[in-house]
Amino acid sequence: MLNMADGVERLSALARSPVVATLAYAFTRAGHDLAIVGGPVRDALLGRETNDLDFTTDALPDEILRIVKAISTAHWDIGRAFGTIGAMVPSPNRPAEQVEITTYRADSYDGVTRKPTVEFGDSLEGDLARRDFTVNAMALRVPTQTLVDPTGGVEDLVARTLRTPADPSVSFGDDPLRMLRAARFAAQLDFAVDPATVAAMAALRKTLSIVSPERIQGELVRLLQSDDPVRGIRLLVETGLMEQFLPEIPALRLEIDEHHHHKDVYEHSLTVLRQAIELEQARHPDAAPDVPLRIAALLHDIGKPATRKLEPGGGVTFYHHDIKGARLARKRLQELRFDTDTTTTVIRLIELHLRFFGYAEGAWTDSAVRRYVRDAGAELESLHILTRADVTTRNAKKAGRLARAYDDIERRIAELSAQEELQAMRPELDGNRIQEVLGIPPGREVGEAYRFLLDVRLDEGVVGEAEAERRLREWWAARA
């Protein structure tokens, strides 16, 4: 429960911090107002960590720039057209902190694009009223430490509710990206969304078409970076917004025939995502969120609707849903403008997420373990997490058996790695040596020889350079 006394003290401490005091003095001396605005105010009241500081002021961009030049180690005006000036502001015995100061805004939208017609405002209250949610529409005037909350943000913080300052249909009509931000903040803050706001999201879901894929991708990534994104994903699915940019997720809600029994694939996928995050945080507590892993956990079964087959006797199969899912994921991630590295990682994890279950059914040879490592490559640790998270059975005996099997494969990988430097996974002869031994020039045949030697390495481990040369000559002679 929100403790307002503690929150007020945290706000006061924020206002007294050296960087804020430096800026407040400079703007006051120049005859201008200054207020901390948005996320830092909300997070201080909630007791959450406050990162970058955002300020708003009645000063115009040129005047902001003039003021910060005198007190900053660096400044930039890339956002000048939108009224924003950035700066690195130092304070005694501390590294400089990044801040952004923006002139009061009173923008208008044309309803065709989400780009506003930039208009500067003349009051702090007017600036706050145009923001996305009431909990982000609070400001703390400095140095007076006066909280300004014209839309009831404090009350919504206490109620743990997300609500738009204006009519939600107007707010989302102005900028449809705010609907995705609602899902993100619901997950990050663990807040419920006001029913009228949810209704407006559903009604205006198709207006998301005016938002660029890059912007949608950015909000999806921020949602997945939260400690528990499931609340936000559910909201996007229930309002129909997910259908607009990632329709494979709502498609997981397969109709379950009373005579054919299988898991609820949608609920299973959300559970896998949650379990993957828990494992990721347990195994790597200080690491940044692994976004490709989380995307793979969410999408790993999206091939199931297209491959579902109802079998006589009540069985259900999803043959090759891993391959189908990888193809669907590639198409969707490319449409959302994900970078090549992220897309490649996600595809590899989806393609390989079923491989382990063959191990659970029977012991693998050392060669099979080596191939598992080789195919996973740099994603081996993420594959470990995804595969463990993919066990959602309520059968404790089965879950225990699978966990022990994966403990065993990780143990064997560690042992083989110690013996053979398994992660390197290269033949004992490189391309140049292959050309020397066989007396051939660079070309396709060198690649074929390399793959032959790689198979020897995977099947048998290290055989020694001399033996590798003998095998190579033998293979070459048989091939000829």
Automatic annotation (TrEMBL):
SMART domains: HDc. Its cofactor is Mg(2+). Keywords: ATP-binding, Magnesium, Metal-binding, Nucleotide-binding, Nucleotidyltransferase, RNA repair, RNA-binding, Transferase, tRNA processing. Pfam families: HD, PolyA_pol, PolyA_pol_RNAbd. Residues 265-392 form the HD domain. NCBIfam families: HDIG (TIGR00277), tRNA_CCA_actino (TIGR02692). This is CCA tRNA nucleotidyltransferase. It comes from Microbacterium pumilum. The lineage of its organism: Bacteria, Bacillati, Actinomycetota, Actinomycetes, Micrococcales.
